[in-house]
Amino acid sequence: MKIVVGYLLAVVAAYVLGAVFVSQGNITAVIGMGFDITTSQRIDAMIHDVTHMFDIYLPLVAIGMLIGLGVAGLIIKYVPDLRLVGYVSAGFVALIAIHVILKAVLGLSGIAPTREIMGLVLQGLAGAGGGLVFHFMTLKKHAS
Length: 144
Known about the structure:
Layout (H helix, E strand, L loop, with lengths): L1 H31 L6 H14 L4 H20 L6 H24 L10 H21 L7
Helix pairs in contact: 1-2, 1-3, 1-5, 3-4, 4-5
């Protein structure tokens, strides 16, 4: 049960961070066109993206994290000392892979900020955050 809860929380963390990074990436593009954006508008955009991207983006994040964390778990059985690095790296790669695969298969970047390297790296960081959550949520407690 701990693994399921850890996975679900990791997906939520990666999704929320990813949506926030998408929101801010889009706002950066708008500012680049010469428009002024207030802090209130930034917050509104973040809330909008987090609450409105779940139907398409959340399933992609869930699938990517399931594959990434699953593969990491298999590897970590052989190198348990690299558990933290393994899960964080798996989340990072999983979210980048989502966007690279979409681009390769469909020929388009469904999320505009991922067309730039910084947007893609930020999505990776969102996945890394999810991997970090999974690591801590699934740690075994040692009796002292």
